[in-house]
Amino acid sequence: MNDAAYAPTAARKAGETALGILVAISFCHLLNDMLQSLLPALYPMIKSSYGLSFAQIGLLTFTFQFTASLLQPLVGALADKSPRPYSLAIGMGFTLAGLLLLAFAASYTLLLAAAALIGTGSSVFHPESSRVARMASGGKHGLAQSLFQVGGNLGTSAGPLLAAFIVLPHGQSSVAWFSGAALLGMFLLVNVGHWYKAHGITRLARAGTVRHAAPRHHVALALVVLLMLVFSKYVYLASINSYYTFYLIEHFHLSVRSSQLHLFVFLASAAIGGMVGGPLGDRLGSKYIIWASILGVLPFTLLLPHANLFWTGVLTVPIGLILASAFPAIVVYAQDLAFGMGSVGAAVLGKVADHLGVDAIYQICAFLPLIGLLAAFLPDLHKSHAARTA
After folding, report:
1. pLDDT tens per residue across span 25-60
2. CA-to-CA distance for 83 and 125, rounded, in angstroms?
3. In angstroms, rounded to a whole number, what is the distance separating the alpha carbons of residues 145 and 327?
4. Closest by CA position to 13, among listed 205, 200, 148
5. The dihedral sign for the CA sequence 326, 331, 334, 336
6. CA torsion angle for 129, 264, 43, 165 (degrees, to 10)?
7. Which residues contact 140 (CB under 8 A, 6 or more apart)?
8. 3-state helix, strand, coil in the chain (%, to 5)
9. pTM for the complete prediction?
């Protein structure tokens, strides 16, 4: 086949959805977030073993999420200037190091160091893996981000189950058993890096040539509004991930294992919500999915602090479904923006729990979805894109 005949075929393939890469990066996202979710899943055990306060638990979450968010803009900026296809495997390596330190930490200081290493792994892995999902999307950005995020959500939801059935019976050192999952992830990510180097950079360059720049004041307004929306989402998620098990143990006198199973129900619901949100965002527009998701969860968060055990479990299902459905749309709306916003919130919530009790967290956080009203100020990029293509 001569070059002239080959060129249209190559161009067509370059625009197709690379499903194999999407599945691989989604599975690696599952592994990465599964390993990272072991830290908050261990909080009840750690609190008891090390005699920690809720403020110290909050500081662990702050350390993890702060390092996860602090380096992400730097990683994203470096990748914009010079793509680094194999940084994904390096990020998983940081997570592996933090996991091993967490398994054998003999002091609170070492726990903080382990949290920082795991957070660093997140900061390196997530921007580039999200970029790879976009490269492989073939223009189906919502679908790609939804598949990518559902991997992460499934991994996160697995954390409580692993804690309940493996780590709790066998002790903190059993966390080291999961190093095999990290090594598998590193192997897969090296192969994703090969594709990134051979095909992804070309796709990224082609996408840059057709991108339409929005007016600067629209971009600034959208970023401010998105930051507020992401703040409400992540602080509420931090309240669940960090303190929900303690709330169930203290409020309803559940065992640690039962509380972990309740946390799994919430996180599994979030995984399904993330799966649904992407295709809906492609069809209806990111703005409306973000708005409906964050504001739509408000009635359920307001009821949760007053519910009995049965209804607490029931209410967390729609909360997880609705709240998580916004995430693929947020990522599509502002790539690499939506990470780490719960870090300060988690630390503050720990102080609140120590002084006012863990119940107070859900009394306060119930009103956070009201910030979803700000979504009205987001420019409607879906309509703008439709008008350009009409």
Report:
1. 999 999 998 998 888 888 888 998 999 998 899 899
2. 13
3. 9
4. 200
5. positive
6. -100
7. 17, 282
8. 85, 0, 15
9. 0.67
